[in-house]
Amino acid sequence: MIRGSTELVAIVGSPIAQVKSPENFNTWFASNGCDLAMLPIDLQETALEAFVGSLRGWQNLRGCVVTVPYKQALAARLDGLSARAAALGSVNVVRRHSDGRLLGDNVDGAGFLGAARKQGFQPAGKRALVIGCGGVGSAIAYALGEAGVRQIILSDPSAIRVGALCEVLGTAFPSLEIATHYRSLEAFDLVVNASPVGMGSTNELPLPAPMLTTLQPSTLVADVVTSPEITPLLQQARDRGCAVQTGPQMAFAQLGHLGAFMGVTPLEI
Ligand code: NAD
Q1: What rounded mean pLDDT belongs to the chain?
Q2: How confident is the model at residue 18 (pLDDT cuts 50, 70, 90)?
Q3: Which of 60, 181, 192, 208 is the most buried (most CB within 10 A)?
């Protein structure tokens, strides 16, 4: 129950009804006896500037999770950013300090990697294919670079997005091998779809179907799409004997990272 004493965290985006964080966080707060609650905020873009001002002055608010479409716009308005959020130019979580300062981080990649490690994936020295170089794909590629993968192949129909991510990764991780073309899936330890392809009931694949015949059973295949849980890519990977990682697994693995940054949960929950 929300009381006068309850401390708050928020999640801001638009639309917001589809997000799972409020039920996940509020369930965790209730079952751990915390006087804390998460509020969903569906914010109009024109109210963003005023919203940041409100965050600074909102004394019983510990922080705010940020989702589409405000990850970049909010990053540009905060008082400080983690190194990865600064490199990516986007935040998915903000911590409010008691003096009103707002600090941002981006834990999309850490959540992804946390879920992958639970599958037994050890990133150091590995080769990864990242399909989709938008907000989430960039965060995943950055986390893989931080964790010491040897090679990342990037794929996205937008040459501008591929180029921008190559530059970010090349600057942050000078010894990382970065390429933008692939002819087979054989050499990859990890294949991740970080694009929205496969969402809903379109039955689409994010790569050419014949290429799936080159997928090896030792490759971990991951998808960021949350609905359906088993996307066409994951189904085909399973059929070929691969371990798979779903979008909901990534989302769940992020909870501790988001909560710990706001200071409301431990890292491991
Ligand atoms: P975005 O719009 O920033 O990026 C999507 C990228 O995919 C774009 O660069 C686009 O050009 C690219 N793309 C489209 N079709 C492609 C194709 N056929 N092959 C390769 N790339 C292609 O979006 P985003 O914020 O990065 O989100 C991507 C997906 O991740 C969404 O479906 C979102 O719901 C999901 N998501 C999941 C989690 C989670 O925890 N599981 C968290 C955040 C977002």
Answers
A1: 97
A2: confident
A3: 192
Q: 187 CB under 6 A from ligand 1?
A: no
CA distances from 122 to 38, 126, 149 (A): 33, 8, 9
Cβ–ligand 1 distance for 134 under 6 Å, the answer yes
* Boundaries of domain holding 228: 109-248
DSSP category for residue 194:
-
| Burial of residue 51 (number of CB atoms within 10 Å: 0-12, 13-18, 19+) | buried
pTM: 0.94
Is the CB of residue 199 below 6 angstroms from any atom belonging to ligand 1? yes
Distance separating alpha carbons of residues 190 and 192, to the nearest angstrom? 6
Could you confirm whether 71 is annotated as catalytic?
A: yes
Find the mean pLDDT for residues 211-222.
Answer: 98
- Does 115 lie in the same domain as 78? no
Instruction: Look at ligand 1, atom 36, and give the residue with the nearest C-alpha.
Output: 224
Same domain, 235 and 128: yes
Closest ligand 1 atom, residue 254 Cα: 40
